[in-house]
Design brief:
Length: 86
């Protein structure tokens, strides 16, 4: 199985190609942040990102937008703590 065939399954049913996930990690590793503005990706700071990372963001734009908008349901982390506190 190649990287382009592999998928990442996130909580809440979000499924994206591994390439999109790795592109988003590469942005962070390069010291940048990325967020979604509607269907667009905004990278801060806007300059200095390597060409191969920009190419990956373009290739997987739709999935990278979904990752940037993704908010995991982490309520399970607090359920046990709330019971212990009572």
């Amino acid at each position: 199985m190649s990287e382009s065939d592999a998928l990442i399954h996130l909580r809440g049913g979000v499924v994206v190609p591994v390439g999109a996930y790795l592109a988003m990690l590469a942005v962070e590793a390069a010291g940048h942040t990325v967020c979604a503005d509607g269907g667009d990706l905004i990278v801060e700071p806007g300059n200095g990102l390597a060409a191969n990372i920009l190419d990956a963001l373009r290739t997987y734009k739709h999935d990278c937008v979904r990752l940037a908008q993704y908010v995991p349901d982490d309520s399970h982390l607090y359920q046990g703590a709330a019971r212990r506190a009572s």
